From TrEMBL:
Recorded superkingdom: Eukaryota
Organism: Podospora bellae-mahoneyi
UniProt name for this protein: Glucosidase 2 subunit beta
Stored Gene3D superfamilies: 1.10.287.1490, Mannose-6-phosphate receptor binding domain (2.70.130.10)
Transmembrane annotation, as ranges: none
One of the Pfam families matching this protein, by short name: PRKCSH-like
Signal peptide as annotated in the record: 1-19
Protein's UniProt keywords contain Coiled coil: yes
Length: 561
C-alpha cells in the first residue's frame, strides 16, 4: 500500500452518497456524472467547444486540454506535455493552480467512504488502499498486481475510530458544559460580590459625606469660639482654674501662719529665759509668796514640757509645700489646663439652657454669626497652641478614616468589575480554569501553563525558573495540522490561542513570550512545547474548554461494529 496520507485529495463524500452507475465511465466522481451521461459524445468540461466521440473517453489518450476525457486512466496525469496541469501531490483541495477539470480518479469505496486518488497513482502497479480501499485504481493489473476490495474491513475500522472520536467529543463537550456551569457560578459570585461592594461603597460614601460635614461643622464652630479666659477650656479647665487659685490662697495663708508661729516661738523663748533666770536668782529667804508661787508654777510648766519639740511636721516639709508649683514640684497645673473647650460652653453658653430644637437652631445661626465676625476681624479666632482643638483633630481623623475606608472599598469594587469584564473566552468557559496550572516536559525543561496567569520554564537540573510570559489576551488562528492517532493534536480549523507576553528578558533578545494553542481534549494537558524561535515558545494544549459544544444526542447511534 502506498503511504498517501499527505497526498490525499480531499474529495471524500459521505458514506452512502451517490455511487457512479454501471454505465458511467470509470473514475467519474458523483459531482461530474452529468458530464458523462451521453452514450455517443463527450464534451470537454473546461473546453465546451471540443466534442469527442464517447469511445475517446478513458481510451488512455489525453484529448481534452483539461484532461476531463480521462477520468479513469493516468493518461492525463503527466504523460502528455500538452495535457493540462494536474493536481499536485500534497494539494489539499485537489485543484491548486491547475486547469484540470477533474480532481482525480474517483474510488467509490462502497462500504467505506468514497475519495479521489491522484491520477498518477492509477494503474501504477501499487494498491492505494488508504484512498482506494476497493482496489479499483488498478484495473489493468500492471506487473500482475491484483488489488482485492478491502473496504469492508477498512470501513469497519474507520467507523470504529469515528465512533470513538464521536464519544470522546461528546465526553469532552460534557466536561465543557460542566466548566461552563462552574464559570457561570463563579461569575454569579463575582456579581453578588459587586452588588454587595456597591452597597458598601454607597454607605461609605454617605458616611464620608457625613464625616466631612461634621468636620466642617466642628471646624467652623471651633473657629467661632470666643476666648473666655486664659486659653483654658471645659469644665475641667474651670475647675482647674478655681483649684489653682484656692491652692495659692492656702499656700499664702500657710506662709503667713508660719511667720506668726516663728514670732510667737521667739516670744515664748524670751519669756522662758526670764522665768529661768527668776528661778535661779530669786532669794528664797524673802518670804515673798507671789515670787514663790511664780517659781513653783514655772517649775511645774518646765517639768511638763517634752525634751524634743512636739509634732512630726518638719520645717523642711512645710518649706516644700510652700514652694511654687511647677512641672517638677507640687502640682503641674499645665497638664490640666489643656482640656477640651467644648464643655465650657455649657457653663458659659446661654444656648445650653434653651430647649434642644431651639438651641440647635440658635447654635447654628450663632456659629454663622461667629464665623462671620471672625472673618471680619470682630472676634478673635482661638486655635490652641497645637494649632487645632482635639475636637477638630478627632473630626478630621474620623473624616480621613471614612475617606480611606471608602477608597479601599471602591478599589475592591473596581477590581471585581474588571474581573467580571475580563475576556474568558466563549461562554466565559475559561473562568473556571483561572489560577489552575498544568505542565508537561520537553527536553531539559518542564513547561508549566497557569491559565490566565503565566507560563514558566523549569529546569530539570534545578536551575531557576524562567517566566515565559504573562497572560494578555485570547486570539484565534487558523491551523492546518495532520490529525494524530492519539487525538492529541490541533487538527485543522480556527483554534483559540492564548497570548502570554512580557516574560523574562532573553539574553541579547526580546522578552520571552508564549503562544498557547488550544485543542479539544477530554482533560487539560500540555501536549507539547517547542521554542519556535529564540525565546518565543509555542505550547499545544488540550482542554475540554477548547471544545465546540455538541449537544448530547437524543438517540444513541447504532453500532455497526
Ligand atoms: C535559556 C532558556 C532557553 C532560551 C535561552 C536564551 O537557556 O530559556 O529556552 O533559548 O535561555 O538565552
Amino acid at each position: 500500500m502506498r503511504r498517501t496520507g499527505a497526498l490525499a485529495l480531499l474529495g471524500a463524500i459521505a458514506h452512502g452518497s451517490l455511487a457512479a452507475s454501471e454505465s458511467l465511465p470509470r473514475g467519474v466522481g458523483p459531482e461530474f456524472v452529468k458530464f458523462f451521461e451521453s452514450k455517443t459524445t463527450f464534451t470537454c468540461i473546461g473546453n465546451p467547444s471540443i466534442t469527442l466521440k464517447a469511445s475517446q473517453v478513458n481510451d488512455n489518450s489525453c484529448d481534452c486540454p483539461d484532461g476531463s476525457d480521462e477520468p479513469g486512466t493516468a493518461a492525463c496525469a503527466n504523460i502528455d506535455p500538452l495535457s493540462p496541469e494536474q493536481p499536485l501531490p500534497g494539494s489539499v483541495t485537489g485543484t491548486t493552480n491547475t486547469t484540470a477539470a477533474l480532481p482525480g480518479f474517483w474510488c467509490a469505496n462502497a462500504g467505506h467512504v468514497g475519495s479521489y486518488l491522484p491520477f498518477m497513482y492509477v494503474n501504477d502497479g501499487v494498491c492505494d488502499y488508504e484512498l482506494c480501499c476497493d482496489g479499483s485504481d488498478e484495473n489493468t493489473h500492471v506487473g500482475g498486481v491484483q488489488c482485492e476490495n478491502r473496504c469492508d474491513a477498512i470501513g469497519k475500522e474507520y467507523r470504529r475510530l469515528e465512533e470513538q472520536r464521536r464519544q470522546n467529543k461528546e465526553r469532552s463537550a460534557k466536561k465543557r458544559r460542566t466548566l461552563v456551569k462552574e464559570s457561570r457560578e463563579l461569575r454569579r459570585r463575582v456579581e453578588v460580590k459587586i452588588a454587595n461592594l456597591k452597597t458598601e461603597v454607597r454607605d461609605l460614601d454617605a458616611k464620608k459625606a457625613e464625616m466631612q460635614a461634621k468636620f466642617d461643622e466642628v471646624e467652623r464652630s471651633e473657629r467661632g469660639k470666643v476666648v473666655k479666659s486664659e486659653g483654658q477650656g471645659g469644665k475641667l479647665g474651670v475647675l482647674v482654674g478655681l483649684a489653682k487659685s484656692r491652692v495659692n490662697e492656702l499656700r499664702n495663708t500657710l506662709d503667713k501662719v508660719m511667720d506668726q508661729r516663728d514670732d510667737l516661738q521667739d516670744k515664748v523663748d524670751q519669756l522662758e529665759d526670764i522665768l529661768t533666770k527668776l528661778k535661779e536668782e530669786y532669794n528664797p529667804n524673802f518670804n515673798d509668796e507671789g515670787v514663790k508661787a511664780a517659781v513653783k508654777a514655772w517649775e511645774d510648766y518646765a517639768a511638763g514640757q517634752p525634751s524634743e519639740p512636739k509634732g512630726d511636721l518638719a520645717d523642711s516639709d512645710i518649706m516644700e509645700v510652700l514652694k511654687d508649683d511647677s512641672e517638677t514640684s507640687g502640682i503641674n497645673w499645665a497638664e490640666f489646663e489643656t482640656g477640651e473647650a467644648s464643655d465650657v460652653d455649657v457653663v458659659y453658653n446661654w444656648e445650653a439652657y434653651l430647649p434642644v430644637p431651639v438651641r440647635d437652631y440658635v447654635h447654628q445661626k450663632l456659629n454663622l454669626l461667629r464665623v462671620w465676625a471672625i472673618e471680619n476681624g470682630i472676634l478673635a479666632d482661638n486655635p490652641t497652641s497645637g494649632g487645632e482643638s482635639r475636637l477638630v483633630t478627632a473630626a478630621r481623623e474620623a473624616r480621613d478614616s471614612a475617606t480611606n475606608a471608602h477608597s479601599v472599598k471602591l478599589g475592591q469594587l473596581e477590581e471585581e468589575q474588571r474581573e467580571l469584564e475580563k475576556d474568558y473566552g466563549p461562554d466565559d468557559v475559561f473562568r473556571a480554569l483561572k489560577g489552575k496550572c498544568i505542565s508537561g516536559e520537553a527536553g531539559e525543561y518542564d513547561y508549566e501553563l497557569c491559565w490566565f496567569d503565566k507560563t514558566t520554564q523549569k529546569s530539570k537540573k534545578g536551575h531557576g525558573n524562567t517566566n515565559m510570559g504573562n497572560f494578555v489576551r485570547i486570539d484565534k488562528e487558523f491551523v492546518d495540522e495532520e490529525e494524530r492517532l492519539d487525538g492529541k493534536g490541533l487538527g485543522k480549523g480556527q483554534r483559540l490561542v492564548l497570548r502570554y507576553e512580557n516574560g523574562q528578558g532573553c539574553w541579547n533578545g526580546p522578552n520571552r513570550r508564549t503562544d498557547v494553542y488550544l485543542g479539544c481534549a477530554e482533560t487539560d494537558e500540555v501536549w507539547r512545547t517547542v521554542e519556535a524561535e529564540k525565546c518565543v515558545y509555542r505550547m499545544e494544549v488540550g482542554s475540554p474548554a477548547a471544545c465546540e459544544d455538541v449537544q448530547e444526542p437524543d438517540v444513541p447511534i447504532k453500532s455497526e461494529l
